[in-house]
Design a protein that fits this description.
Blueprint lengths: L2 H20 L22 H12 L6 E5 L11 E5 H6 L5 H12 L2
Antiparallel strand pairs: 1-2
């Protein structure tokens, strides 16, 4: 394995470790970045990083890992590289945001 490929896979693995830390960690119940209902389907993060590298290539500058379906699990089939703008456009709506939009829309 080349040093460049190894560094690229370590970068992917670091993002996966961060995602796993946010998935249902009861110690972070008040943290808005914690996803209590999201499944993290990788048992071996380094193997997952290798598979993602083979499927998607190295992570382009200015991108991070994003779930294609924001309500879906962290799995090989549901992960892509995306810019911050793409990730913001792909956010899942929170119930109170949906309620506020529905309430404001019905008053017009």
């Amino acid at each position: 394995m080349t040093a460049k490929k190894d560094a690229a896979m370590r970068k992917i693995a670091a993002r996966l470790y961060g995602a796993r830390a946010r998935c249902g960690n009861p110690a972070k119940l008040g943290d808005r970045r914690t996803y209590h209902n999201v499944r993290f389907e990788f048992d071996n993060i380094l193997e997952a990083a290798r598979l993602l590298y083979e499927l998607l290539g190295p992570m382009p500058p200015g991108t991070s890992l994003d779930r294609i379906d924001p309500r879906g699990p962290y799995s090989i089939e549901n992960i892509r590289y995306a810019t911050m703008a793409e990730q913001l456009a792909n956010r899942r709506w929170k119930r109170h945001e949906q309620f506020c939009l529905q309430s404001s829309g019905s008053n017009t």
